[in-house]
Amino acid sequence: MQDHAEQKKQLRSRLRQLRDRLDEQMRQQASMRLNDGLKRELDRLRLNKNRQKREALVIFSYLSYGSEASTDFLFEEGWKQGDVLLAPKVLADPPRMELRRVTSQEDIEPGVWGIPEPKASCEVLQPEDWPALDLVLVPGLGYDLQGGRIGYGGGYYDRFAASLENQCAKQGKRPLMAALVLPGQLEPDIPMDPLDLRLDLLITPEGILHIE
Fold it and tell me: Cβ(15)–Cβ(185) under 8 Å?
């Protein structure tokens, strides 16, 4: 067991360094392509819900920080289109995330460790309403083509995904779980634990990968 944990720890460290050192010009070019891919996917989802007219989406996404793939475009685009956008507020005891609605930059402030998060005044989406989500954008350090992901080790998104799965099973509807993949973040094989969340969609600079 120790080997597996150690393997993950070393992988996290290597992938974090890679992401932190990504050439700025390369990062900007990749971000533009990721935003294009994200826009195409959002347009597809809007039409898919009801082909007669474009519908607003319900989206839960991390607020990017440091060298993470930027989610600024997602929030700006979503607000412009009238989507419902939710972001995580991390709570310590027990460790969990609240999904809080953000309607503009005014709703966002620096939280724990300076990571941006919704203000305390933002409305909370209760777990029984989570199946209304269309798309979840998950942060991470690395991904593979089987939908594997390695996060930061806190387990917040894995716990969220397990709770989401329970709620969705009751209602027979689940959102797409997606990630924005920067150059150097795609691995041949991510070591996974049984409870680790898996992704349905990888948005890469080269295009969108739907995982079966």
Answer: yes
Task: Report helix, strand and coil shares of the chain as percent, to nearest 5.
Answer: 40, 20, 40
Which tokens hold the place of 199? 């992704």
Q: Given a cut of 70, is residue 51 above it in pLDDT?
A: no
> Cα separations (Å) of 186 from 142, 149, 190, 204?
6, 9, 9, 9
- In angstroms, how far is CA 34 from the centroid of its own chain? 13
Question: For all residues of the chain together, what is the average pLDDT?
Answer: 92
Are residues 108 and 63 in contact, defined by beta-carbon separation less than 8 angstroms? yes
- Using DSSP's 3-state secondary structure scheme, residue 110 falls into strand
DSSP of 119-174: -TTSPEEPGGGGGG-SEEE---SEE-TTS-EE--SS-HHHHHHHHHHHHHHHHT--
Q: Measure the CA–CA gap between 67 and 206, rounded to whole angstroms.
A: 20
Confidence of residue 200 (pLDDT cuts 50, 70, 90): very high
What is the C-alpha radius of gyration for the chain, rounded to an integer number of angstroms?
A: 17
Confidence of residue 50 (pLDDT cuts 50, 70, 90): low
